[in-house]
Amino acid sequence: MKNELTNDILRVLYTEDEIKARVEELGAALAARFAGQRPLFVGILKGSLIFLADLIRACPLLCDLEMMAVSSYGNATSSSGRVRINHDLQQDVRGRDLVVVEDILDSGNTLAFLRDYLTAKGAASITIVTLLDKPSGRQKAVTADYVGFTVPDEFVVGYGLDYAQLYRNLPCIGVLKPEVYGKPDKT
Ligand code: XMP
Ligand code: MG
């Protein structure tokens, strides 16, 4: 389908159907893992928003939901090591089994920071679920417990992931045309 959004995509890595099937598998795996328990999902805004919404509906458990918003500093397509919390937890997580839901694990800076932060808050356990894993970018030793797809060393957008705040609403995941990067921010 051609439209304003898809025109900028060079290559689709995962189609809408492929993502749906994988998210169903992840939801079922989490439901089995936490059967009879009441985990607290912690979605990391904004990138995980769409994944999180689909994942929790694919996971028929009694569960709680929290959101955190963090930003890590660097240029548009690579992160620095510094992470800042822009929106914090609204409830006590002491003694809770947390399921942290991220869009992409790249350098590992964000999840390393969150893992330490949530451990310090007294979480009983921390399970990391990331839609995408880009192992080639890793700077910190972080491993996800559940991974949707392992991606090559390319900047990807769609299904929640942005470039300059755009393309989050693309239903698939893909790589942008080179000429799009470096265009002035459209926002
Ligand atoms: P780190 O490097 O801290 O990355 O593991 C975590 C955050 O960086 C963003 N990120 C990306 N966003 N396409 C994106 O749209 C990418 O290829 C990409 N790589 C890193 C993302 O916000 C993630 O939460
Ligand atoms: Mg992001």
How do the strands line up in the largest sheet? 4-3-2-5-6-7
Largest sheet: 6 strands, mixed
* Fraction of residues in β-strands: 25-35%
Compute the separation of the termini in Å. Answer: 24 Å
List ligands, each type once.
xanthosine-5'-monophosphate, magnesium ion
Q: Report the radius of gyration as a whole number of Å.
A: 16 Å
Overall geometry = globular
* Succession of helices and strands: EHEHEEEHEEEE
Name of the CATH class of the domain at 16-74 and 92-151: Alpha Beta
> How many helical stretches?
3
So, CATH architecture of the domain at 16-74 and 92-151?
3-Layer(aba) Sandwich
Low-confidence stretches: none
CATH topology of the domain at 16-74 and 92-151: Rossmann fold
Rounded average pLDDT: 93
Number of DSSP-assigned strands: 9
What class, by secondary structure content? Answer: alpha/beta
How much helix, percentage-wise, in residues?
10-25%
Structure commentary:
With 187 residues, the protein is of the alpha/beta class. The protein has a domain at 16-74 and 92-151: Rossmann fold, CATH 3.40.50.2020. The chain is 21% helix and 34% strand. The protein has helices at residues 16-33, 49-57, 109-120; strands at 9-14, 40-45, 64-75, 78-87, 97-105, 125-133, 146-150, 156-157, 173-176. The strands form two sheets. The protein has a six-stranded mixed β-sheet with strand order 4-3-2-5-6-7. Helix 1 crosses helix 2. It starts with 8 loop residues before the first strand and ends in an 11-residue tail after the last strand. Magnesium ion (MG) binds at residues 47, 162.
